[in-house]
Amino acid sequence: MKPPIEKIKFGIIGVGHMGSYHLNVVSALPTHELVGIFDARLPYAKEKAELFDTTAFETYEELVAKCDAVTIAVPTHLHFAIAKYALEKGVHVLVEKPITLNIKEAEELIQIAAQKKLILQVGHVERFNGAVMALANIVTEPLLIQTRRLHPHNNRILDVGVVLDLLIHDIDIVLNLVKAPLIKHAAMGSLVTGNHEDVAVIDLQFEGGCIATLTASRLSQYKERTLTVTQKNNFVILNYGAQEIEIHRQGNSVTVTAPDEIKYSQESVVERVYVHKDNPLKSEHEHFYKCILGKEKPLVTGETDLRTLKIALESIEQIKENSKR
Ligand SMILES: NC(=O)c1ccc[n+]([C@@H]2O[C@H](COP(=O)([O-])OP(=O)(O)OC[C@H]3O[C@@H](n4cnc5c(N)ncnc54)[C@H](O)[C@@H]3O)[C@@H](O)[C@H]2O)c1
């Protein structure tokens, strides 16, 4: 049994776009000792390591041997092999989303982590968005949920489509927001730039009547990340980027005549919710650290990730089927 850890020996595997954000966060956390990084582009990794005063390892195996915990931010099709290796070596893992490309691999990782009493956390960083964390107290009886995640095209993510790249964030958040069981889901989408879907819409129907429509595009000239919720007594608008929430209610529409004879009616009332804004990725790492020390229960569990991944993969199949016709 390893002695309790005060400062966590941490490594990062894959320091591209997302891995660099993890590097920025981890290198500034007082609870973390950045042991090193690994990236298949070794010269690039050496430059990065110099910038952060740490070591670029020749292999991820050597790095894992020196760590208590690692972040894995390599392309998705490589998540399984590296996460399995690290877990089997007794190292806690924060793996970027999506956890893997299929359910079987995800189940195997979750099982190894459970057997070895290790923390396996998936990088659903939007869960740690201040506005999303405030949402749970506001959304009690959702009738209609609509999400829009529109991003411009980029050549970085080529091994998956827009469902596993972007829309999975909203699947994860909506499945955790609606407490009722999911009874049905249907997907549509189109493959424009290659073998994977670039535009997708997923409809979810929950017991009790709540429905959700999740839209994502990675061909958009306009960037947007929003979630809206219709409830009986209000309409909630969440802006992920700004970490802001507005609650709209119908006004009393009573026509009032002001002393100076101006007539007006109160059409709607808008409340702006106070949101504790912080860097969601920093909050994600602080949570991972506290879970490893047993001070917090994982917010994102293997089971919730399996459910999220299952919906995503079934939707991709439906889109592929439909696009053949
Ligand atoms: N949570 C989020 O919001 C979010 C955002 C973007 C990407 N991601 C996820 O992060 C992962 C990485 O995406 P990205 O956008 O950073 O891609 P990227 O291409 O910018 O970075 C991937 C890095 O992995 C390295 N790499 C490739 N093969 C390797 C190997 N075998 N061993 C070690 N390193 C290797 C590459 O050299 C590159 O530096 C993906 O799984 C993606 O889904 C999550």
List the helices and strands and how they pair.
Elements: E1 8-13, H1 17-27, E2 32-38, H2 42-51, H3 60-65, E3 69-72, H4 79-88, E4 92-95, H5 103-115, E5 120-122, H6 130-135, E6 144-150, H7 162-177, E7 182-190, E8 199-206, E9 211-217, E10 224-230, E11 235-239, E12 244-250, E13 255-257, E14 263-265, E15 268-272, H8 280-292, H9 302-324
Parallel strand pairs: 1-2, 1-3, 3-4, 4-5, 6-9
Antiparallel strand pairs: 6-10, 7-8, 8-9, 10-11, 11-12, 12-15, 13-14
Helix pairs in contact: 4-5, 5-9, 7-9
The structure holds nicotinamide-adenine-dinucleotide.
What's a quick, concise take on this entry?
With 325 residues, this protein is of the alpha/beta class. It has 2 domains: 116 residues, Rossmann fold; 168 residues, Dihydrodipicolinate Reductase, domain 2 (2-Layer Sandwich).
Care to describe what's here?
This protein has 325 residues and is α/β, with parallel strands linked by helices. Helix 5 (103-115) packs antiparallel against helix 9 (302-324). The model has no long low-confidence stretch (mean pLDDT 94). It folds into 2 domains: 8-123, 3-Layer(aba) Sandwich (Rossmann fold); 127-280 and 310-323, Dihydrodipicolinate Reductase, domain 2. The longest helix has 23 residues, at 302-324. The protein has helices spanning 17-27, 42-51, 60-65, 79-88, 103-115, 130-135, 162-177, 280-292, 302-324; strands spanning 8-13, 32-38, 69-72, 92-95, 120-122, 144-150, 182-190, 199-206, 211-217, 224-230, 235-239, 244-250, 255-257, 263-265, 268-272. It has an 8-stranded mixed sheet. It starts with 7 loop residues before the first strand and ends with a helix. It is 33% helix and 26% strand. The chain contains 9 helices and 15 strands. It binds nicotinamide-adenine-dinucleotide. Nicotinamide-adenine-dinucleotide binds at residues 13-19, 38-41, 73-76, 78, 96-97, 123, 125, 156-157.
